[in-house]
C-alpha cells in the first residue's frame, strides 16, 4: 500500500517552453496500472507510435529532464479530450497513486530513481497549449 506524499514546492516560477534538444516525444496512458488504466496518475509511457493498436486512450507529451534532475512532462492539451483534462489536471494538480517507471529506452542518461514517477500530488503549470508537470 502506498501513502500519498506531496512534493515540496521549491519554486513558484512557471517553467519555460524553450527548445531543449533532449526532449522526447511520447504517448502517455493516463490512469493507474492496477485499475486497468482507469483512475488518475500515469499508467504507461512509451515512444510516440510505439503501440498503435492499444485500446487505452493516450495523450501526447514531450518528456525531458530539468537541470535539477526531475522529469518534466509537457502534455499537449490538443491531444486530450476535455474529460481527461478535468479528471487529471483539475485545480492545476496532478495526482499519482502508484509508481510508474519511464522506460530506459526513453531516458538513457538517467538512473532508475530519476525515471520513477512516485506517488504524490504535483503542481501543474498551464503554459500556452501545454500542461506541464515535473516529477
Describe this structure in words.
By secondary structure, the chain is mostly beta strands. The protein has two helices and nine strands. β8 (120-127) and β9 (130-134) form a beta hairpin. Residues 1-11 have low confidence and may be disordered.
Topology:
Blueprint: E1 24-32, E2 38-47, E3 58-65, E4 71-76, H1 82-89, E5 93-96, E6 100-101, H2 112-115, E7 116-117, E8 120-127, E9 130-134
Antiparallel strand pairs: 1-2, 1-3, 3-4, 4-9, 5-8, 6-7, 8-9
Describe the strand arrangement of the main beta sheet, using strand numbers: 2-1-3-4-9-8-5
Beta-strand portion reads: 35-45%
User: Termini, distance in Å?
Assistant: 20 Å
Q: H/E element string?
A: EEEEHEEHEEE
What's the total count of β strands?
9
Tell me the number of helical segments per DSSP (H or I, 4 or more residues long). Answer: 2
Largest sheet: 7 strands, antiparallel
How would you classify the helix and strand content by structural class? mainly beta
Uncertain residue ranges:
1-11
Shape designation: globular
Percent of residues in helices comes to under 10%
Rg estimate, integer Å? 14 Å
Mean pLDDT: 83
What's the quick description here?
With 135 residues, the protein is mostly beta strands.
Features:
mainly beta; 9 strands; disordered N terminus; 2 helices; seven-stranded antiparallel β-sheet; single chain
Amino acid at each position: 500500500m502506498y501513502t500519498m506524499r506531496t512534493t515540496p514546492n521549491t519554486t513558484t516560477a512557471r517553467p519555460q517552453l524553450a527548445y531543449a534538444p533532449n526532449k522526447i516525444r511520447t504517448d502517455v496512458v493516463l490512469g493507474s496500472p492496477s485499475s486497468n488504466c482507469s483512475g488518475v496518475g500515469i499508467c504507461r509511457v512509451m515512444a510516440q507510435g510505439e503501440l498503435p493498436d492499444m485500446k487505452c486512450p493516450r495523450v501526447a507529451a514531450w518528456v525531458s529532464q530539468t537541470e535539477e534532475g526531475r522529469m518534466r512532462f509537457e502534455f499537449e492539451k490538443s491531444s486530450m479530450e476535455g474529460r481527461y483534462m478535468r479528471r487529471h489536471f483539475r485545480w492545476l494538480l496532478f495526482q499519482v497513486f502508484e509508481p510508474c517507471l519511464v522506460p530506459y529506452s526513453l531516458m538513457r542518461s538517467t538512473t532508475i530513481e530519476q525515471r520513477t514517477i512516485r506517488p504524490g500530488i504535483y503542481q501543474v503549470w498551464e503554459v500556452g497549449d501545454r500542461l506541464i508537470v515535473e516529477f
